[in-house]
Amino acid sequence: MRRAIARGSLLAILSLALVLAGCMSKADKLVYDANDKAKKALESSPDDREKLLEQARTELQEAVKDDPKNLNGWKLLAQIDDVLGHEEDAAKDYDNASELDPTDQKLLAKARYYKQLQEMANSSDSALADIKSGKVEDGERQLKDILIQTRFAAARQKAIKALSESIPIVEQQGDQQVQNKQYPDALKTYEEGIRACMLLAQATSGGKMGPEADSMLHKINDTAKTAGTPDATFRILNDVLAVDPDNKTANMELAQVYLRRSPPDYDTAADLEERAGAPDDEVSKLRAEAKKHRKG
Question: Which of 115, 118, 99 is nearest to 107 (CA)?
């Protein structure tokens, strides 16, 4: 997907002052030409803007390859990579530039910023390791922090991949706890798995949850019933519907919670099943029960 490049985001690029003195080296000439293209990009259409910046980027890559100590080349390349969204390359560029000029506090701050983003990306591995070892809440909290706090594409993609991989692992852990009759632990584990599905949906599909959540939504409800705490899933099911109101499984499972109440709430259960697309005759039966109980 092409990244939109705003005209205002180019202003920082033009802060680079190039001093021309006598005969320029090959690298200096390339940097000068690249800077000229960056200036022209300011007055260009969005499509031409990106094209000019990519051309400038290619020239700058050649410049720093020819002269690895060309500070202006690294600085301009870092800024252009930043604007174009080449974040991993920008991280390396700022690091090289700050090594050449350790007194430039702005360069140093940028290098530190990108280093932190890279460390955050790498922390997805440790988060997944925590989840595999049973520290589900800690691992998922770390992945959530990455997705919320960073715009660094590599970090987000790695967190999304780890989150996706964690879901079946968490479900298996919950299944084992049910088998061991550790029902309170299983309820907590399944809830963490469902919340991972919610987070994945918010990060990838605008909140619409995929089928990976369906089995856990059913299992957590069954576990709550077996444990004698049928209302235990009320909050998590409502939280799912706040994110994905049309989720059929969540609507059906929440309907069962209302039916297990004493007395059963047939009206609300009928509304939920109707939203879930249950057969008309089933919804009609619930509405008839509701009417009968109101008369009684």
Answer: 99
Q: Measured in whole angstroms, how far is the alpha carbon of residue 221 from the centre of its chain?
A: 28
Question: What DSSP character marks residue 19?
Answer: P
Instruction: Tell me the residue range of the domain where 152 lies.
Output: 114-261
How far apart, in whole angstroms, are the C-alpha atoms of residue 240 and residue 12? Answer: 43
In the chain, the number of structural domains is 2
pLDDT of 102-156, one tens digit each?
Answer: 999 988 998 988 887 777 777 888 899 999 998 999 999 889 888 887 767 777 8
**234 backbone φψ class: left, alpha, beta (φ>0; ψ -120 to 50):** alpha
- Residue 15 in any domain: the answer is yes
Residue 218 sits in a domain whose CATH number is 1.25.40
Structure tokens belonging to residue 244: 């994905």
Asked if residue 142 and residue 253 are part of one domain, the reply reads yes
Residue bearing tokens 């290619």:
58
Q: What is the number of alpha carbons within 13 Å of residue 90 lying toward its C-beta?
A: 21
DSSP category for residue 86: -
Q: What is the pTM of this model?
A: 0.69
Same domain, 165 and 231: yes
DSSP 7-41: GGGGTTGGGPPPPP-SSPPHHHHHHHHHHHHHHHH
Same domain, 222 and 178: yes
